[in-house]
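Bumping with the actual sequence this time:
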Amino acid sequence: MWTHPAWPGRGLRAYADHCNAVEGNTTFYATPSASTVASWAGQTPPDFRFLLKLPKQVTHERRLHDVAVPVRTFLDAVEPLGERVHALWVQLPASFGPTELNALGAFLRRMPRSPGTAVEVRHPAFFEDPRWAARLAEVLGSVGAEQVLFDTSVLFAAPPTSAMEEEAWQRKPRLPRRSHALTANPVVRYIGRDDDAETVAGWGYWVDTVVGWLREGRSPTVFVHTPDNAHALTLARRFHEEVRARVPEVEPLPEPQPTEPPTLF
């Protein structure tokens, strides 16, 4: 997401003043129009990263079968973003399991190699059975695709204490944490708590992992979420600062622009 009532400013331009990458969640629900994509390009610098989810028609409704036309339509629609499209995000339903790996492999072989492709799976077998975890990595690695690493361990570490945390407990997958990188561009979704201190205390594992990736020459993208996301921008910047304190050569995030006109006092 790139807008929230609690965040300074409104819309993508204000978001891009704070962070340099965004999940393209809106594209999961519909392929955007040409004017919409042109607006996104106009509101972001050339090095901004969009990780765009393929439409649910492709991933959930057709489950990667007979999707050449909607995929081509989608790729044509987002082409004006150019190199801002850092990855095409294949978010699969929790019911998409090991028996459909052949369909995933066939689909990925038809996808363009640039931009890269990141696949998010939620079926428990890929996390609990080493055989299927290895087979998934083999399928993705054969075409240079990455696995989206989705971490809800901190969210589920203690019972919910707010309505938004209760909702997140119902909606988010409860799966073992994984931290392997298959490509030069790993992707992490870290879900914390509505208590900022708990979120920060729980991300040390990812700070260490990201620092290691950077020192290996990789270029990870990390998204920091909380159930209500009210402080997500601030938390994302804090995570970046912790990483940069250990890897100073990492470029700083943009300096946010004032959201109100300056005053004399």
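The tokens above came from a reply further down the thread. Residues 232-246 form the longest helix (15 residues).
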